[in-house]
Design goal:
Blueprint (H helix, E strand, L loop, with lengths): L2 H13 L7 H8 L3 H13 L4 E4 L3 E4 L12 H17 L2 H17 L1 H9 L11 H13 L1 E8 L5 E13 L4 E7 L4 E6 L3 E10 L4 H11 L6
Antiparallel strand pairs: 1-2, 3-4, 3-7, 4-5, 5-6
Helix pairs in contact: 1-3, 2-3, 4-5, 4-6, 5-6
Length: 225
């Protein structure tokens, strides 16, 4: 586990407990040495996190040491709830799991979020049935690799293309992949529902994905406020 990820995981373990946790228990859960736990605790304390060492008991994160976040209004809570539900239904497997985890935390800590989860005015349609393809595309984008796609157009004609995947758009009636198509040597948009097969090629993108994303945004005149 990378150092930053391990430190965040340690913080997550401490946040979920109301009683002190021994260093050995934390080390076992993180699969590291006790000495590594000590170093990570010191690093978190140096960042100002209120972690107390309780003699003969372990470490405790003082919840009173955090500034309480500003509460959500009812409409803000419903907007956040709807956004998370969209990812829970339409995202890749890692994003679905992250959204569910974030959703649970918000519901547990916010009365407005709890009410929104029970009485929301809007809902999200179930998964479109393309979760496996979404997972493959997410993996390729994360690792910045090209994909080979067997694609069927609106007339039913199939082609095999090498794409540089950039971003997946979630629209009301479909999901679209924006990518650079080697066959056309240009940016193109592909309906995920028309992808018959998708394979990660293990060939790296010729440019970082963030650069391709910026180029695609400029070409399509996409701006952010």
């Amino acid at each position: 586990m990378a150092r930053i990820g391990r430190t965040l995981r340690l913080l997550e373990l401490l946040r979920g407990r109301r009683m002190p946790t021994p260093a050995q228990v934390l080390a076992d859960e993180l699969q590291v040495s006790v000495r590594t736990v000590y170093r990570n605790i010191v690093a978190l304390q140096a960042e100002g996190l209120p972690i107390r060492a309780i003699p003969q008991a372990g470490y405790l994160l003082d919840p009173q040491g955090f500034l309480r976040p500003a509460p959500f209004s009812a409409l803000e809570a419903e907007a956040v709830h709807l956004g998370l539900r969209l990812i829970e239904e339409r995202g890749s497997t890692p994003l679905r799991e992250a959204a569910r985890s974030a959703h649970r935390k918000m519901v547990d800590s916010s009365h407005a979020m709890e009410m929104a989860s029970r009485h929301a005015s809007f809902t999200v349609a179930p998964d479109s049935g393309h979760a496996q393809i979404i997972d493959v595309l997410h993996d390729a984008m994360t690792r910045e690799l090209r994909v080979e796609v067997t694609y069927r157009d609106a007339l039913g004609n199939s082609t095999v293309r090498i794409l540089w995947p950039i971003v997946v758009g979630m629209f009301q009636d479909c999901q679209m992949l924006a990518a650079h198509c080697e066959l056309r040597n240009a940016f193109r948009h592909f309906r995920i529902s028309r992808m018959v097969a998708v394979t990660v090629t293990e060939q790296r993108l010729p440019k970082p994905r963030r650069v391709l994303l910026a180029e695609w945004q400029r070409e399509n005149r996409i701006t952010h406020d």
